């Protein structure tokens, strides 16, 4: 069989150095970006912190498309995927809408006695557990019967409407802490009875979302949240002393989070009167800030990284928190998943390869940012799932549209194939985490870099070509030199996300962007949405422990090279 790697570079393929007996390999093309991977030097574990996902609308979990996507996410990860969802305690009949969901787990009878109903929330958690997934279980939001201002309760928000208008009766602290605490206790006990103690011990529990912002309506948000946190933690721990509970899931790592850490470590507990509060992990959110500049979307990865690093630095300040697990509860290019590109043109990046290359570049740098601060990062939640009953490719921040996978999902498929230890990567065409944090990826220089891992006799190298500006061009010739390979030959598989591969969006556009694709078109889109190889696996000769692979990497493209020997 003719080797793919001897094929034309025109196909954006991969060219290995030839064996000694073969004709000399042409010199690298002018402008080649050279990357090196030392397979003998480990830089840390390939912690799959990316295998965490979240969304506002928990009831999507039980729709056919939702179950399909959950299965896809469970299948791509080498470890159990964690899922974080809002509205698990919100009152309602389980109907879904943008930025809304409900389970109706709590109501009261005519005499004010609690009535618990676990049916809807059980169906949501069942959808996770049946697939080997685990909840990052959020105690939120306030049931209508416990809200001090229950009307209006369900919002009617839609894209283009002021974000603050979603904050209705569900966004208040409880009017009765005894009943609220008992509800939490009963929910956790029910989960233990339904799923078993060992299973629930593997979950994480939290209370509320972004209490430093609009999500909590109170005269003094800090004190209101600290009181809610203490009572919720006490209820969870009474139900299951070995449960893992943490927070504060603030929108930013700012003064609110600092005061919370001080309260949890040294303050007076509102529920017990003792010093300090349970804190089994620390969590906050970090977002970027895209904008439109001269009619071109420009991403804000620098803002994203600064928000990450502020939190890492804050945790590192406290000796008592050394080694504590850290979860970035939402880590995304911007803040509103349900704001489509029609109302927010800066979000037009979401359908195509810019979102994919951004995700590859930012996930890889999270390792560097966490390592620099000595952070025990265990989770970084990608806040994107799907949106039911919406137009095809409407520009929401989602992983799939109408049951069809979008390009960004294939980045997570690539990450799922990277196991074991991270390897030392060098290069001459990359921005590092520090420079991106200072100034982004703008101007004439693009970010061409790699993340590499090794497990046993397999090495995986993810290479991306990223720039903040949403412009696509032919990209750069790239040379990847791997050293320290204890073999004479290796099998290479090359996976690619670009305009021609692993890209349902370009396939949909070529169809004429149908508003209602036919069954045959949907089947074609589903096929186009999977992770594609550029060609069949081939063999590369290893000379003196080294193999050099060359490719043309278009702008916004992501490649995964998997070498087995």
Automatic annotation (TrEMBL):
<feature type="signal peptide">
    <location>
        <begin position="1"/>
        <end position="21"/>
    </location>
</feature>
<dbReference type="InterPro" id="IPR017853">
    <property type="entry name" value="GH"/>
</dbReference>
<comment type="similarity">
    <text>Belongs to the glycosyl hydrolase 39 family.</text>
</comment>
<keyword id="KW-0378">Hydrolase</keyword>
<dbReference type="InterPro" id="IPR049166">
    <property type="entry name" value="GH39_cat"/>
</dbReference>
<dbReference type="InterPro" id="IPR000514">
    <property type="entry name" value="Glyco_hydro_39"/>
</dbReference>
<keyword id="KW-0732">Signal</keyword>
<dbReference type="GO" id="GO:0004553">
    <property type="term" value="F:hydrolase activity, hydrolyzing O-glycosyl compounds"/>
</dbReference>
<dbReference type="GO" id="GO:0005975">
    <property type="term" value="P:carbohydrate metabolic process"/>
</dbReference>
<keyword id="KW-0326">Glycosidase</keyword>
<feature type="domain" description="Glycosyl hydrolases family 39 N-terminal catalytic">
    <location>
        <begin position="96"/>
        <end position="528"/>
    </location>
</feature>
<protein>
    <submittedName>
        <fullName>Beta-xylosidase</fullName>
    </submittedName>
</protein>
<feature type="active site" description="Proton donor">
    <location>
        <position position="210"/>
    </location>
</feature>
<dbReference type="Pfam" id="PF01229">
    <property type="entry name" value="Glyco_hydro_39"/>
</dbReference>
<dbReference type="InterPro" id="IPR051923">
    <property type="entry name" value="Glycosyl_Hydrolase_39"/>
</dbReference>
């Amino acid at each position: 069989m003719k080797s793919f790697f001897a094929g034309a570079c025109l196909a954006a393929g991969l060219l290995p150095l030839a064996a000694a007996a073969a004709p000399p390999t042409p010199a690298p093309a002018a402008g080649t970006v050279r990357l090196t991977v030392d397979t003998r030097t480990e830089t840390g574990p390939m912690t799959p912190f990316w295998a965490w996902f979240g969304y506002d609308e928990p009831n999507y979990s039980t729709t056919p498309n939702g179950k399909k996507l959950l299965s896809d996410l469970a299948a791509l990860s080498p470890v159990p995927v964690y899922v974080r969802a809002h509205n698990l305690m919100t009152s309602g009949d389980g109907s879904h809408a943008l930025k809304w969901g409900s389970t109706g787990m709590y109501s009261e009878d005519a005499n004010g006695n609690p009535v618990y109903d676990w049916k809807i929330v059980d169906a949501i958690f069942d959808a996770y557990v049946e697939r080997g997934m685990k909840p990052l279980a959020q105690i939120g939001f306030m049931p209508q019967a416990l809200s001090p201002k229950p009307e209006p309760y369900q919002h009617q928000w839609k894209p283009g409407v002021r974000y603050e208008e979603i904050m209705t009766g569900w966004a208040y602290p409880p009017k009765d802490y005894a009943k609220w605490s008992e509800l939490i206790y009963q929910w956790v006990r029910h989960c233990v009875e339904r799923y078993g103690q060992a299973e629930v011990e593997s979950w994480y529990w939290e209370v509320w979302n972004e209490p430093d912002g609009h999500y909590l309506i109170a005269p003094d948000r800090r004190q209101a949240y600290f009181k809610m946190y203490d009572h919720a933690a006490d209820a969870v721990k009474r139900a299951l002393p070995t449960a893992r509970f943490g927070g504060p899931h603030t929108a930013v790592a700012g003064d609110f989070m600092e005061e919370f850490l001080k309260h949890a470590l040294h303050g007076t507990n509102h529920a017990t009167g003792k010093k300090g509060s349970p804190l089994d992990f620390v969590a906050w959110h970090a977002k970027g800030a895209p904008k439109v500049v001269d009619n071109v979307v420009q991403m804000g990865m620098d803002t994203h990284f600064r928000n990450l690093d502020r939190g890492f630095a804050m945790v590192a300040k406290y000796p008592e928190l050394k080694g504590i697990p850290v979860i970035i509860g939402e880590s995304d290019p911007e803040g509103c998943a349900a704001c489509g590109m029609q109302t927010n043109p800066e979000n037009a990046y979401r359908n195509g390869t810019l979102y994919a290359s951004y995700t590859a570049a930012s996930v890889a740098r999270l390792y560097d940012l966490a390592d620099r601060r000595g952070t025990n990062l265990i989770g970084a939640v990608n806040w994107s799932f799907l949106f039911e009953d919406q137009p095809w490719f409407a520009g929401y921040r989602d992983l799939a549209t109408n049951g069809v996978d979008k390009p960004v999902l294939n980045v997570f498929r690539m990450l799922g194939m990277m196991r074991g230890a991270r390897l030392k990567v060098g290069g001459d065409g990359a921005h590092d985490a520090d420079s991106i944090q200072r100034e982004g990826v703008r101007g004439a220089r693009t970010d061409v870099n790699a993340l590499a891992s090794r497990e046993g006799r397999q090495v995986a190298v993810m290479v991306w070509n990223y720039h903040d500006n949403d412009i696509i061009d032919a990209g750069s010739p790239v040379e990847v030199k791997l050293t320290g390979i204890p073999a004479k030959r290796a099998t290479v598989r090359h996976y690619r996300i670009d305009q021609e591969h692993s890209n349902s969006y370009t396939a949909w556009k070529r169809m004429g962007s149908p508003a209602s694709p036919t069954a045959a078109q949907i089947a074609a889109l589903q096929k186009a949405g999977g992770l594609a190889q550029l060609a069949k696996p081939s063999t590369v000769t290893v000379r003196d422990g080294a193999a050099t692979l060359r490719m043309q990497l278009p702008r916004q493209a992501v490649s995964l090279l998997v070498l087995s020997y």
